[in-house]
Amino acid sequence: MDIKYHFFVSIMLTIITFPFFGWFCLLVLIGGVLIDIDHYLWHIYNKRTLSVKKAYHFMKHKNHANRNMTLIFHNIEFWIAKVILVFFFPVLLPLFIGLASHMTMDLFIYFKNKHTHPNPIAYSLTKKYLLKSK
Ligand SMILES: [Zn+2]
Which of 19, 43, 74, 82 is the least buried, fewest Cβ under 10 Å from its Cβ? Predict the structure, then answer.
């Protein structure tokens, strides 16, 4: 999903959650937008360039999900870690709200188009690397 949609929804959620979390509501924005930095990290590692512009155009391609990508923040293991972190550090709840909104939007687009991301819920690093399947 295009980052501008994540940014727009995250801004709305940040404003809505301000009365509940105060300035910690900015974590919603961080969680809702910055999770996609894993796409950029993948591009840096695999394409050996720091160009944000090239990475953006590369990720906009329709067959984006058909590439065998490892997105370190878009997987079930990261989700489990986030839930555990929020349990022990409730102050991180706004970050979790941002991440949840991001993953919900990614999932919606996945089921609509099936070409922008790997399935953000079923995608598992354990399955991919330890069990050696896709
Ligand atoms: Zn995403």
Answer: 19
Domain count, the chain: 1
Interatomic CA distance for residues 78 and 9, integer angstroms: 21
Give the C-alpha separation, 75 to 84, whole Å: 15
* Position 64 pLDDT exceeds 70: no
Cα–ligand 1 centroid distance for 33 (angstroms): 8
Q: Is the pLDDT of residue 55 over 80?
A: yes
Three-state DSSP class for 69?
coil
Ligand 1 center to 107 CA (angstroms): 9
Enclosing domain of residue 38: 3-130
Q: Could you read off the pLDDT of 107-133 as tens digits, one per residue?
A: 887 777 766 555 655 677 887 788 775
